Protein: NADH-quinone oxidoreductase subunit K
Amino acid sequence: MTPVLIVALLTGAILFGVGLYGALSQTNLVMIMMGVELILAGALVNLVAFWRFLHPEIYAGQMFVLVVMTVMAVEMAVGMGIAIARFRAKGSVEMEEAGDLKG
Structure:
């Protein structure tokens, strides 16, 4: 394995780990969404690294990266819409107080 691949994989793993910790340890909806975005970014870095070093001539890897980036943007837009609606209705975006969202 080349040193560049190792650095890319370590960077992706660190992003994934920080995002996982952030998503599981926070109670604020915005912070949880930021953690999920970091998880997806870490997976995306690893995906690009593997694509680049294994099969750079196949463009399906690039298309999959674009799909993941689109999912990241849509997830953040929907999540922020929910957070803004929740803040306007209840004055808080804490997940411990969001029991009324069930059902």
Remarks:
- The mean pLDDT is 89.
- The radius of gyration is 17 Å.
- The helical segments are 3-25, 29-54, 60-90.
